Amino acid sequence: MQNKQPRFTKLSKFTRWFAIQFFPAWLVTFAFASLFHTLCVLVNLSALDVFIPWFTWLTTIVGDFIGLLPTYGVIIAVALCIAFGATITLIRWCQQSARPLSALPILLLFSLSGGVAIAVTLLAMQPIMNITLIAGSRGTLGFMLQSGAGVLGGALFGLRSIQKQNINY
Q: What's the domain range around 89?
């Protein structure tokens, strides 16, 4: 009698990858991007001598998280999928061409790809829609913070992929 593999092996492998690696990385990226956006906007308002009570700061942070989720959250997910997919391909190519990468370069590559994904996304939205959709990214600091959120998410993705070895590099 043969040992049959479960019918949904690929689905369960994808589900494990999604739950263990991608979703936490996306959540960290989106949560920090949303937080940085809100803080940049509120700090700029405060610089104009607008008084904002601390409770308003908290409710605005939560409200922006919920409000940005269906749009910016999805855009970030797509950008990270493309970036991480390209990075996985690059790492596999390096491993197959007798240039194996250790954990640190893999971590750095995923961190860089996360940051670049957010930066490219923000830069691409401007000419397409002729507005800066994420108000918190209008200044240099805001843009860097948004890209930094991508770096954090990419670093988490890299750490999880190194720890769990879910992707055969």
A: 16-164
